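Late entry, written up from scratch paper. The run itself happened at the end of the previous shift, but nothing got recorded in the book at the time, so transcribing now.
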Amino acid sequence: MWAFGSELVLNLRLNHEVQTLRDGNAQLAASNEQTKKELAIGSSPGAMEEAARKSGFARPGEQVYVIVKPSESATPAAIGGSASPGTAPSAKRSAVKQDGGIIGTIENWWRNLWH
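Output as recorded:
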């Protein structure tokens, strides 16, 4: 009778181990499918071009423009204002901050370009 009980325990343990391995295999299969989808998307021509552009590459003969937002410490002349004493730099800066100015307009255009 004792041998029958130990075989039962061993069988239960092995069945549990088999089920654990099957669950692990199912998770790996799902992960593999997700990775295959990501690779297919990432190797598309559009994705490759986007990655190349983010790395600073351009097509031969293409002219690249880089839009840089000026820092807060930029002078009014550097952000399109006048450096003459008759203008109020603070008024010009508040107008730029309020409506985004030319930089804000370009940023909005760039964000909406592909949408």
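The longest helix spans residues 2-42.
(Scratch paper discarded after transcription.)
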